[in-house]
């Protein structure tokens, strides 16, 4: 959050720790360029398929699919149930339609 609150507006910003775009309230000053009017604008700058495959911090066992940018293909990995990032798909088909085409 910025330090001023003369102007409050909901924006979208990229959260580096989570690896995804999320809403935040901007107060109007001391901001930076990580501020977008729409989720689409943020995601266009931080594409989903370029993010690393990430299990997350939790210890559940959910088979998921993500795009491996080095191999240039979707592959299965285990998602722990929390955190991680947007490079996570329920099905191989969803991953391939989004990232390989």
Automatic annotation (TrEMBL):
Domain of life according to the entry: Eukaryota
Entries under InterPro entries matching the protein: Kunitz_BPTI, Kunitz_BPTI_sf, Prtase_inh_Kunz-CS, TFPI/VKTCI-like
Positions of the BPTI/Kunitz inhibitor domain: 1-46, 49-99
Keyword NAD annotated: no
Cross-referenced Pfam families: Kunitz_BPTI
Recorded GO MF terms: serine-type endopeptidase inhibitor activity
Name of this chain's protein: BPTI/Kunitz inhibitor domain-containing protein
Native source organism of the sequence: Loxostege sticticalis (Beet webworm moth)
């Amino acid at each position: 959050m910025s330090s001023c609150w003369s102007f409050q507006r909901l924006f979208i910003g990229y959260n580096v720790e989570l690896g995804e775009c999320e809403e935040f309230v901007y107060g109007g000053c001391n901001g930076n360029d990580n501020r977008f009017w729409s989720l689409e604008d943020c995601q266009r700058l931080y594409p989903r398929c370029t993010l690393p495959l990430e299990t997350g911090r939790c210890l559940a066992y959910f088979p998921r699919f993500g795009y491996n940018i080095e191999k240039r293909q979707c592959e299965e990995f285990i998602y722990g149930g929390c955190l991680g990032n947007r490079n996570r798909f329920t099905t191989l088909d969803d991953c391939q339609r989004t990232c390989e085409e």
